[in-house]
Design brief:
This protein has 195 residues and is mostly helical. The chain contains twelve helices and no strands.
Length: 195
């Protein structure tokens, strides 16, 4: 994989592949950024410290992503759910957010409130509520009150937990929220007193 890093870095930074490749060779040989920018201009094609630092940063990110891909592939393989198509999708993805979205359905889960509600048999109630066709959800929830489910409120709370987990794991819902934040999000910063 690493032999292709120079191509990806070059494309991302708008620097030639040759400059990127030679700079990575110097960095991997242990040369420091100031040394490369001052004494190896002929090798890098005149790249400055900022450009060399950007190359190193991109290289480190790609290495981290490659390690994460290996972990993800191994985890899914151990579950027996790794198909050739899924492997190809993971191997072709270099965006960390997209990679985690692909992995989400296969990610081992802790015991969540939604999982506890499923074990109490509340998933059909959650499905019914998600359809939004029931005008009186309390009546439906009353049918699920038994030894594990104390009352109607407990049944509805469990169903909401299942719905919340389902929505949070839905790829389209996650992308809609990301796009909404990207388009409409406002960042506000204030100076801390005394600074």
């Amino acid at each position: 994989m690493s032999q292709n890093y120079h191509r990806m870095i070059a494309a991302a930074l708008g620097i030639s592949e040759r400059q990127t490749e030679r700079t990575l060779e110097l960095l991997n040989d242990g040369a420091t950024i100031p040394f490369i920018s001052r004494y190896r201009k002929e090798v890098t094609g005149g790249l400055d410290e900022v450009q060399i630092e950007a190359i190193r940063t991109q290289y480190e990110k790609l290495n981290e992503t490659a390690k994460r891909k290996e972990t993800i592939l191994n985890t899914i393989q151990e579950q027996g759910k790794l198909t050739p198509e899924l492997r190809a999708r993971i191997e072709e993805t270099w965006d960390n957010t997209a990679l985690e979205d692909i992995y989400l359905p296969y990610k081992p889960k802790r015991k969540t409130r939604a999982e506890a509600a499923r074990q109490k048999g509340l998933e059909p109630l959650a499905t019914l509520l998600m359809l939004q066709r029931e005008p009186h959800p309390e009546k439906q929830a009353a049918r699920y009150v038994k030894e594990d489910v104390k009352d109607v409120d407990d049944a509805l709370k469990g169903a909401r937990d299942i719905i919340a987990e389902h929505v949070s794991e839905d790829k389209q819902a996650r992308n809609n929220v990301r796009n909404s934040f990207a388009r409409h999000g406002i960042l506000i910063a204030k100076v801390v007193k005394g600074k």
